[in-house]
Amino acid sequence: MTDLEKNVTRNKKLDGLFAVVGLLSTFIGMLTLAALIVNLAIDGTARLTLHFFTSFPSRFPAQAGILSAWVGTTLVMVVTALAAVPMGIAAGVYLEEYAPKNWLTVLIEINIANLAGVPSIVYGLMALGLFVYQLKLGQSILSAGLTLALLILPIVIVATRESIRAVPASMREAAYALGATKWQTTRDHVLPYSTGGILTGVIIALSRAIGETAPLITIGALTFIAFLPDSPITSEFPFISFQWLMSPFTVMPIQMFNWVSRPQQEFHLNAAATGLVLMVMTLIMNGIAIYFRYRFRKRIRW
Questions:
Q1: Is 24 part of any domain?
Q2: 141-165 and 67-93 are packed helices; what angle lies between their axes, rounded to 10 degrees?
Q3: Cα 200 to chain center, whole Å?
Q4: DSSP state, residue 61
Q5: Is 222 helix (H, G, I), strand (E, B) or coil?
Q6: Among positive and negative, which fits the CA dihedral 188, 79, 125, 206?
Q7: CA distance linking residue 219 with residue 249, whole number of Å
Q8: Helix ranges, 166-251 (H)
Q9: Domain containing 125: what range?
Q10: Which residues pair with 240 in a beta bridge?
Q11: Which residues on adjacent β-strands are paired with residue 233?
């Protein structure tokens, strides 16, 4: 057997070993997730009633619900997505397509990568000083949404840059050869081709944000709240109100923490049901993003 044949045989064995290790890692992750979901379902399914979704928290476990928690989570995530996703994508496009390659750009890139690994409590402390005290936004939904937007912004930027970087240079050169401007090339070719990767980064970022607790507690999220924010729709012109942005709030992870910290077993069942609802909300949010990613990729193939 020649040296070439030995190298080929060895590489095939290494490829097979890597495939086995990757398959085992995938199964371990899937089994862990399945065990978590099954455990939550066993403990909390009985509490998933209409009353549970339409009632406020209570000191009586059987009467307690998550109305204020799931409404607060939804509104906070809306603010987070509207603040972080457009800004993160725009920053990623600028850094990858327009920014000059000099020491300042390199410094910005290094700091963005470092910010992606900063503990979330640090963002909470920064938001407490900036949004709550300096900008006078108070302990509101707007402060919470902007805090989580800062938390996931580096993730969106990095994902956007990596997706744009994966676009073949020949696609840009072909567009330039046909007389397209840089913005036309970016808008009509680079961004559509990289949308799938960008949405993957957005999914990861929003999945992290929806489960965060520490930064929201830092800026003053309530652990017990028995009212809803102001309605965004009013009966008077212009029929839209933004007062809800300044309303106090709570979110589902904080409600779970509140119930888990209590000694009664019934509250622990409520926490399990809340965790199950939170996972379903995350899966729905991710499913919507995956659907749009699939549509964009299908459009590119055709």
A1: no
A2: 40
A3: 10
A4: G
A5: coil
A6: negative
A7: 11
A8: 169-177, 182-185, 191-210, 214-218
A9: 48-301
A10: 233
A11: 240
What is the tally of structural domains in the chain? 1
What is the Cα–Cα distance from 65 to 57, expressed in whole angstroms? 5
Residue with tokens 């030995």: 6
Contact predicate 97/190, CB 8 Å: yes
**Domain membership flag for residue 8:** no
Helix residue ranges per DSSP H, 45-140 = 50-54, 67-93, 103-115, 120-127
The DSSP output letter for 262 is S
Number of H helices, E strands in the chain: 12, 0
CATH label of the domain that carries residue 170: 1.10.3720.10
What's the rounded mean pLDDT across residues 114-126?
86
Cis? peptide before 229, omega within 30° of 0: no
Which pLDDT tens digit goes with each residue over 170-216? 888 888 888 888 888 888 888 888 888 888 888 888 888 888 888 88
State the Rg of the chain over Cα: 24
Cα angle for residues 180, 185, 187 (degrees, 5° grid): 130
- The count of C-alpha atoms lying within 13 angstroms of the C-alpha of 44, restricted to the half-sphere facing its C-beta, is 25
> Residue 283 has which token pair?
């899966």
Q: Which tokens sit at 133?
A: 């005290």
192 lies in a domain?
Answer: yes
Q: Which amino acid is at 87?
A: M
Q: What is the pLDDT of residues 52-90, one digit of tens each?
A: 888 888 888 888 888 888 888 889 999 999 999 999 999
In whole angstroms, what is the distance from residue 156 CA to residue 82 CA?
A: 12
> What is the crossing angle of helices 67-93 and 265-301, to 10°?
30
For residue 40, what are its two tokens?
């939550």
Q: Is 129 helix (H, G, I), strand (E, B) or coil?
A: helix
Closest by CA position to 170, among listed 161, 178, 158: 178
Domain-embedded: residue 1: no
The pTM score is 0.84
